[in-house]
Amino acid sequence: MRISRLVFVPPAALLPAILASIMLNAAAQTPPPLQTLVLTATNNGTTVGAFVQQPISINLRGNPSTGYEWSLVGTNGTSVVSAGPSVFTPDEPVITGGGGIISLPFLAVNTGATTLSLVYIQPWQPLVVATNYTVTINVTPMPPALSLTLTGGNVLLTWPIANSSGFFLEGVTSLQPAQWAALNVSPQTNGPNYWVALGHSGAALYFRLRKQ
């Protein structure tokens, strides 16, 4: 099951104080950036999920003072690419010759599965491998983001048509506990987006898009 970002309509009593702010900022809102997917030694040999355009960081222990480094030696797939050189973060407190975390940045660029193979080696002895690390990253489209605008006594919900196949709109008046129910509405289209206009009765409302 995949769920889009949750949106909230406040009680009618709060609307006068926040409606102007919502309306002024609605046009300038952009989707929040995707959080970096951080992979560690616990992900070795596993398959994980990521979204298109999601940053990925593989964080593994290492000690450059010994001459060892983590090196990418195999990429089976095209959905994930390297996003720059590795970065070493020493342990605290910092001591000469001490170890730390070596972070290797990647980026999910399109859908599909990619297996990354890394080795911990000294570059002058590439055949002497101290440690292997392999992880498969299955990249899928980002779920559609649900946006909300309050206008007059109506709630206007919009979401992109792209990547929305199979998603449907649900609502609930409380999250404790949440008993989500599908809304009996027929989305309309406007350019690249779907939209639904609903009356606001005064109670708090929550909405989400869900795909099973």
The name CATH uses for the topology of the largest domain is Immunoglobulin-like
Number of strands: 18
Specify the CATH class of the largest domain. Mainly Beta
What is the strand content?
A: over 45%
Mean of pLDDT: 83
Classification by helices and strands? mainly beta
Report Rg: 23 Å
Q: What is the rounded distance between the termini?
A: 4 Å
Give the low-confidence spans: 8-30
Oligomeric status of the shown chains? single chain
Query: How do the helices and strands follow one another from N- to C-terminus?
Result: EEHEEEEEEEEEEEEEEEE
Helix content: under 10%
Question: How is the main sheet built?
Answer: 5 strands, antiparallel
Categorize the overall geometry.
elongated
Named CATH architecture of the largest domain: Sandwich
Total of helices: 1
Tally of domains = 2
Brief sketch in words of this structure:
This protein has one helix and 18 strands. With 212 residues, it is mostly beta strands. It folds into two domains: 2-31 and 142-211, Immunoglobulin-like (Sandwich); 37-140, Immunoglobulin-like, CATH 2.60.40.2020.
